[in-house]
Amino acid sequence: MSILTFDSDNYPGKIVCGTDEAGRGPLAGPVFAAAVILDPNMQIDGINDSKKLSARKRDELYEKIKTSALAYRIESVDEKIIDEINILNASLLAMKRAVLGLGIRPDIILVDGNKTTDFDKIPSRPIIKGDSLSASIAAASILAKVERDRFMLSLHEKYPQYGFDQHKGYPTAAHYNAILKYGISDVHRKTFLKNLSSKG
C-alpha cells in the first residue's frame, strides 16, 4: 500500500487528520507537533517520514504542504511544561492543541506512535511508524520538524555557546560538553539532565 493512498484506502470518504511530533529526544527546547488534513485530490510527491528526508527536501515539502493542505496547525509545548508533565504527555498535549486548532474538524485522527489522547471526542487511532505509512502523518512530521529546527536556530542566536545550530538540542557529545562548560540554561529540560553535574 502506498503512503500516498494509505489514508483514503483505510478511511474512504473520511476527513483524515494526521498528527506527529518533533523533539521528544532533545535536552533543550520545546517539543513541536503538527496536525495536517491533506487534500485527497492533490498528492504531494516525495512526502515521507521527516527523518528519512534531507533538510533541503524537508524545507521544500514544508512549503508545498502549507500551500496545498486543506488545513494545518503547528503547536509547541515548552521545556518548563515538559519538566512538569513529562515528555510523553507534553507531546500528546502539543498534538491535541494542533488538532483542535485546525479550521476543519476531522472525522478521524491518525496519531504517530503507540499512544493517543482525548481529542474532544474525535476518534483517533495510534499507528506505529505512521510517519512512513500515512501521508497525512508524514506531512505533520515534516511541518513539526522544520518548525522546531527553525526555532532552535533562533535559540542559537540567544545561546550560541551550546551549538543549537548544529545539534538542535539533541544529546550529542558536543552538547554535553557545552553543558558541562557553561551550565544548564533556561531552555534546557531539567528532568533530562538530573544526573549531569553543572555550573547552572
In CATH, the architecture is 2-Layer Sandwich
Note the quaternary state here: single chain
**Structural class by secondary-structure content:** alpha/beta
Q: Gyration radius, to the nearest Å?
A: 17 Å
Shape descriptor: globular
Which spans of ≥5 residues are poorly predicted at pLDDT below 50? Answer: none
Mean pLDDT: 94
Q: For the record, what is the CATH homologous superfamily label?
A: Ribonuclease H-like superfamily/Ribonuclease H
CATH class: Alpha Beta
Percentage of β-strand residues: 15-25%
Counted by DSSP, the helix tally is 7
Helix content: 25-40%
Number of strands: 5
SSE string, helices as H and strands as E: HEEHEHHEEHHH
What does this structure look like?
The chain has 7 helices and 5 strands, in the order H-E-E-H-E-H-H-E-E-H-H-H. By secondary structure, the chain is an alpha/beta fold. Helix 2 packs across helix 5 (135-158). 43% of the residues are buried. The mean pLDDT is 94.
